[in-house]
Amino acid sequence: MEIIRVPKIMLDTSKTFLLHGKTIGFVPTMGALHDGHLSLVRRAREENSITVVSIFVNPAQFGPNEDFNIYPRDLEGDTEKLIKEKVDILFLPDASSIYPEGYLTYVNVENLSEKLCGAFRHGHFRGVTTIVAKLFNIVKPTRAYFGQKDFQQSVIISKMTYDLNMDIDIVVCPTVRDKDGLAMSSRNSYLDNSQRQAATIIYKCLKETSESIKSGIIEIKNVKNFMLDFLRKEPLISEIDYAGIYDISSLEELSAEKENMLLAIALRIGNTRLIDNMLINIKEERKY
Known about the structure:
Layout: E1 2-4, H1 7-19, E2 24-29, H2 35-47, E3 50-55, H3 75-84, E4 89-91, H4 95-98, H5 124-139, E5 143-147, H6 151-163, E6 169-173, H7 193-198, H8 201-214, H9 223-231, E7 237-247, E8 260-269, E9 272-281, H10 282-285
Parallel strand pairs: 1-4, 2-3, 2-5, 3-4, 5-6
Antiparallel strand pairs: 7-8, 8-9
């Protein structure tokens, strides 16, 4: 595995691959890699000639009171995992090469970036779309891979890619979960044992709500209250940002049934913010 730290070298390397007819699969990450990340890496390897993974803890997507300084970092462990997965290139830029002195340009997908998590993390998605746009310009991927756990992020990046005429396929891969259903996340490491156990209620809520909708037990207009009541049974939840059912494209909260819908949750257990979601296809479930 080659490690590249300089954006210009990464760019020139990618241009050479493309000139020789190679396809580039790209997995952008902030490190602290887990099996969710590695599932994206494996998919990228299967579908492309060259696999590139970036690790960059992006300061632009963290608010002033968020966890940038303590965000999990394990470069040595991450490098070992990527070598084992036979990744071709690890791109490791530093902040000064991505945001040099005098940097003034940002990318923002309006409307979508203010919904769901965006309503609680002001400026977060502007930081996400800016770094992803820059990485796309540097790595020049044929395909880029993201996890469904960050569904809003994938919707926003897909929209940015379409609106800015970027010739890149955005591939959204299934959420990878632990045996108890908790979605894998680098931030899970913040949880102590009791909090970790409490966090399993998120997936239980999604599953129970999904089954209740499919069986007709609850109407769409009552989903939000159903989910809130379910989550409030767990005393270690300190705050619920949102829980409800949403349109998969506009991310607007739904009051009537659609064929495809998104159940989504964001909450805090202690000081740790956790998100998860589940897609529902009513037509597939109801054979009548």
